[in-house]
């Protein structure tokens, strides 16, 4: 489980540049980056939505694995493939996970209207709920992490995996918004993307080799 925790945090940290472009830009547009507390509540809601998704996905795949004896082995193969695709995604081969984001867009069509029903007053509760709703924005990075959450073995572990993943994205989202743009330049730099992308590809290939020996 310890290596999965490392993988979860690495995925979040590696994808921070992508998060800055999507959720970070959204937080800036909504004015949250002008206040540390508003930014904190927004990101807390976003990370909690990841944990909820991890709980749901892990519960679903835990039930499926009980039906097929090699269910977890096949799921690990799928997770390894997704890790490789995520590495390619970070290397700006956007088509690697574009198909998955398009699939997630169907769910987002039902969630997005809820963002308009939140009260106009930007209280802590409003900002927290906004973060929870926008946390379901279609994202290949999050979907890749969810495949690993499904491997965790039970719903609570799946939620914990996604919580660690979310915490991996938190430093960039919070520190960049509050203090400076230097971290954003590092995380979005070509060097960082290549290092992170190749690490994830290597981890994905290692996972595939381990799963192949279990068949």
TrEMBL record:
<feature type="transmembrane region" description="Helical">
    <location>
        <begin position="158"/>
        <end position="179"/>
    </location>
</feature>
<protein>
    <recommendedName>
        <fullName>Urease accessory protein UreH-like transmembrane domain-containing protein</fullName>
    </recommendedName>
</protein>
<keyword id="KW-0812">Transmembrane</keyword>
<dbReference type="InterPro" id="IPR039447">
    <property type="entry name" value="UreH-like_TM_dom"/>
</dbReference>
<feature type="transmembrane region" description="Helical">
    <location>
        <begin position="191"/>
        <end position="212"/>
    </location>
</feature>
<keyword id="KW-1133">Transmembrane helix</keyword>
<feature type="transmembrane region" description="Helical">
    <location>
        <begin position="44"/>
        <end position="65"/>
    </location>
</feature>
<feature type="transmembrane region" description="Helical">
    <location>
        <begin position="6"/>
        <end position="32"/>
    </location>
</feature>
<dbReference type="Pfam" id="PF13386">
    <property type="entry name" value="DsbD_2"/>
</dbReference>
<keyword id="KW-0472">Membrane</keyword>
<feature type="transmembrane region" description="Helical">
    <location>
        <begin position="126"/>
        <end position="146"/>
    </location>
</feature>
<feature type="domain" description="Urease accessory protein UreH-like transmembrane">
    <location>
        <begin position="7"/>
        <end position="205"/>
    </location>
</feature>
<feature type="transmembrane region" description="Helical">
    <location>
        <begin position="71"/>
        <end position="91"/>
    </location>
</feature>
